[in-house]
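Co-fold these.
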Amino acid sequence: MLDIQTQLFEAQDVRFGPIDHETHPEIESKWTHDAEFMRLFDLKPARPLSPAMVKKQYEAIEKEVDEDKNLFYFTIRARADDRLIGKAMLEWINWTNGNGWIWLGIGEAESRRKGYGSQALTMLLRYAFAELSLFRVSAALAEYNQPVLHLFRKFGFVEETRRREALHRDDRRWDLMCYGLLRSEWEEQVKAGGAR
Amino acid sequence: MTDLFRGELVRLTAEEPQTLAAAFSRWNRDSEYTRLLDFDPIHMWSEKKMKERLEKDLDTDPPKEYFFQVRELAEDKLIGFVGLFPIWAHGNAWVGIGLGERDYWGKGCGTDAMRLALQFAFMELNLHRVTLDVFEYNPRAIRSYEKAGFREEGRRRQFILRNGRRWDEIEMGILRGEWLKLNGK
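Predicted complex below.
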């Protein structure tokens, strides 16, 4: 029996919501000035973005969601006051083969290390497997992003490929790790009462 | 100086959109070829549509992708393509290759074209590494890539669904240092 009452977008302390084009650009612009966050979240060269530039990116994201049908984008909000603290997405979804790639990050510095990322990842995986019916998800993570690699392993992700020296930052070469999680592995986690 | 565009069996060329459109449109009617090439189902584009897409690429110069056609030397016949897509900030590039002319499979032409692509990546673009994806059900390509110097860097488990069965996607890579050593430089 389908448990239709379960709210897919609500966790204990955080929830998923849509983009707010009025208030979010200013907040996310601040995150882009945090080089450490940018280098953990993205593999592209980090650069500060003005609120107007962020707004353009939001428009591009919603256009892609609308036209390509292979991207799902969520803002992560604090349940207490609905304020924006991060973002989560499923992208490059390949419907024929049932796979997709996940990304998430907590942009607000004071909201980190509180388990919010873990709650968001729980929701994102449930969405990927229980709603989109994907067969597997992948995540690409820098070798230097140890806390997040640890979090993903806790959720049952397996290291699948290791792209040697594929990242060049601070004049050092780092490996790019690609982790994968199969639907069957996720289901076992859920049954065991873990990553619900 | 090294002749970057000439190997032992093949050479790298740039063709007119019309020539390429005719070849692509014909090659894409061979489903074995398309299923070895891509995990997305291939569209059978008309020559007209294919030509329009290729003509659009003429507007981007320099290109985002270094895309070459492959001609076999003996007959000067167009047999395939090879393309490099650099990620400049990290010195990495993705490489993709396809030989649409089946008569030239298993004769070393693909390996020769890949060797030219690697030489271009390391000696002209000055990259640090080159990456590719290949499917578990394509052992001929895997052997060819190994001959060119690639090594397996892992497998995305059960990534592809074909004929009702799941197959791994294999990732392979070669570092600049490995390529230099292999080529006695």
